């Protein structure tokens, strides 16, 4: 058989399905995190709807008669969580500069601040003096703050994985998506707590 009769293959032949078309300029990891956050905002929205129904529509006393919320402790806890947002940003900026010491210090500080917030929240539940079953107001209080606490716990797990990777030297000034995307989630958790604290403890 002549060589010219053999099937010719282009050097750029591609085997398998073609690459997926990306219509968004946002990278898939960031887009996925943003969509997840939108879904979580809807979950919080359901709890806030019940909260405003009790306070605005029903006009019930908040918190229930005889109950008292620890505003000062919650305020200190708010400052702790907001500080963790600053250290999270510091970690990302350190990664962009290739400063490994600052990355390690930043992520470790962020993790410890987040853990401190969660432990203070648990201690508040232990000493607050009322249970979720005592009243509708108590149920909403535990529901909103507990839902946020679950998000903090998830965030701490993400921070823990990030901490391990940083200490193993995984991130560089050109590849730090593993810090940036979880950082978006952590900033969301912090911002959501400001809303929860303002509506539940202050207003």
Automatic annotation (TrEMBL):
EC top class, as a word: translocase
Pfam families the UniProt entry points to = COX3
An example GO BP is:
aerobic electron transport chain
Per the record, the domain of life is Bacteria
Q: Where is the protein situated, by its record's location annotation? A: Cell membrane
| Primary localization | membrane
Q: Cellular component per GO?
A: plasma membrane
Q: List where the protein spans the membrane.
A: 31-54, 101-120, 140-164, 184-202
Statement: the UniProt record of this protein carries the keyword Nuclease: no
Coiled-coil regions listed: none
The record's listing under InterPro entries reads: Cyt_c/ubiquinol_Oxase_su3 (IPR024791), Cyt_c_oxidase-like_su3 (IPR000298), Cyt_c_oxidase_su3-like_sf (IPR035973), Cyt_c_oxidase_su3_a-hlx (IPR013833)
Disordered: annotated segments = 1-25
Q: By its UniProt entry, which PROSITE patterns does this protein fall under?
A: COX3
Q: Which family does it belong to?
A: Belongs to the cytochrome c oxidase subunit 3 family.
What is this protein called in UniProt? Answer: cytochrome-c oxidase
**Which species expresses this protein natively?**
Capillimicrobium parvum
| Gene that encodes the chain | ctaE
